[in-house]
Structure prediction request, 738 residues.
Amino acid sequence: MSRFLDRVETALKDEELKTALGRATERLGSRRSASLASLENSDMIRDMARRAKMGLLQDLAGNLETFERNLIKNGVKVHWAEDGKAANRIMVEIAKSRDCKRAVKSKSMATEETHLNHDLLEAGLDVLETDLGEYIVQLADTTPSHIILPIIHMTKEKIGEIMHRKIKVPYTNDPEKLAKIARAKLREAFLSADLGITGANFGVIDSGTIVLVSNEGNARLVTTLPRVHVVVMGIEKLVPSLADLDLMVKILARSATGQKITTYTSLVTGPRRPGETDGCEEMHVILLDNGRSNILGGPLAEILGCIRCGACLNACPVYKNIGGHAYGDTYPGPIGAIVTPGLRGVKDWKALPDASSLCGACKEVCPVRLDIPRMLLELRKQAVEEAKVPWTLRAGLWGFGLAASRPWLFKPGARLGGIAARLMAPGGWIKKLPGLAGGWTRSRDMKAPAPKTFQQLFRERKTKGPAASVPMGAETAAPAVNEGSGHVR
Amino acid sequence: MTAPKKIQLFHTCIINEVYPEVGMSVVNILERLGVEVEVPVSQTCCGQPAFNAGFHADARKVARHTLDLLSATEGPIVVPSGSCGDMITHQYHMLFKDDGEEKEYAAKAHAISERCYEFSVFLVDVLGITDLGARLGLKAAYHPSCHLLRGLGVKTQPRALLAEVRGLECVEVKDQEECCGFGGMFSVKNAAISTGMLENKLRNLEASGAKTVVSCDMGCLMHMQGGLHRKGSKMEVKHISQILEAGLP
Prediction:
């Protein structure tokens, strides 16, 4: 059994996870629908947003260069990181050369991807997450299980317990009290930090602006209070102009949390200029590739248009059952099932695209209409071509392909199978199947095939039934499709 | 389109082997509406099991066979399944490139997709019929199967047909549009997750008070039926054609 399936078994046994996930995803799903319904022309806005994102990918390199030029014009220092290690190294170098000791971070999936906190701590820096959810993730020494709601898997009781244990405050499960405790801790940190680290929701090419959306106001403090601000941004997070940003902002919060707009939308266009009263003294942007350029130009390129709203997670019945940690890497849910094998190779991650019923709920809610099921199918194809799949499955589907393209083989085969199945099935139901098929009978009985096929019934009725006047079917009317004709080979 | 006099029935492998009575209900309804039904005898399976598992070469063999077979016929092709219908109309395109040696089959895939109709769509959109005169005292829940709903984008037609059945009460179900967890091979390869999804679905169906689950896809219904049977539940599953055929004089 793969490690993925082990994690799934663990997750499915976790009642607390089920409670927490069930509550949150249901609320988010209905809020999303309501807030999109209140947006006039929402379908058109989604189409336009998709076009803007897909258009950028046609010349991502050129667009990044323009973005870089405009950042530099705004007084920002730009760095290029090929992978996560490089990004972290650049961050440590910046911190050390500016004599920074204490970092505060706002929520960033890119730095989760690079495991930045680990490398910063190792380099002797103090680092504190300031998004409430991420703060608790850090206290609990775990990882976020959702890209928008890091602790969606935790109940408030659990959070109370963690804060009680880790920062020695009296236990409470009152969310408001818990937030107040965290706020007091975080305020101290904001005031003493000398390095602010953020991700980027968007990078606006023509103005050289970094855009951050948040609900807690922590991103604004992280970008203005410390002396130095460093952004880690995936190279795909561009939008062409502020007009396009408007489209994105309209659909992002609605899709993510069902809000019309997040409480804070910060547009950071360079460090503090002479005469300005706030802002950092020095601003850096690290443009992170980390496998993204391998996806570009291939059949998964579309995924680079993802704006990380998390709607597909909330809609996904698989995610709702197993939560985020079972996916085993930074990005969970349908988007993770594509991004993870896309960035890291399908060979070691083929279990993720397999873990989908292809129900299409993700595609339905995606604000930029990413065809997630198509990409999952593409990855399954790549897995068959490149990676090891069980020989039983390979042989089974080879046999299926062989027989199902040859009716003279398929029909007797299916009938033989039917006879065997009926022998195993007293009363017409099979209680236990062998091998891989045993997965079915784990929780379901299997109805045995019928004694007569539909084609037999259809033929019999025509020869003796009341509908005998109905003209004969294909056997006489269309001999070209009969067995043995030239068309079936 | 003028009402077609004759259709080709792509009955699907699951109906042929496991639920032949559903195929007969489809035939009975169509014939009652004056439509002659032809059954191309060499049909096997649409090939979706191989395609969804990533075995495109094997799926391609099956798709070529099905395209050859259907191309040799004329008139609309009726498929009593949203999932197999989606495979033929939307996924066959993915198997054949528009240029090179597969060009011929890409063209066939396109032509066949234009002729393909899921059963409820054929009744409502092509024949223009919603009231078949059916009569059935029953409390039922409609399950919109994923590939019908989100693959083919069919939302209203089955509901319109069910709404005209006298005596039928269609109840709403919590998370009605959520997948039952079938997903073909997914249900065996990821049996644990599939089971979790099925449990949610059955719990919501049972809470709805429905006695019967109605759908346009026997794959999903086979899955739910298997779960219901294991639990010893009395709830039944029916293809929409079986409901529409009920009580017809």
About this structure: The two ends of chain A are 39 Å apart (CA to CA). Chain A touches chain B through 82 residues (CB under 8 Å). Residues 390-450 of chain A form one domain. Residues 358 and 373 of chain A are 6 Å apart (CA to CA).
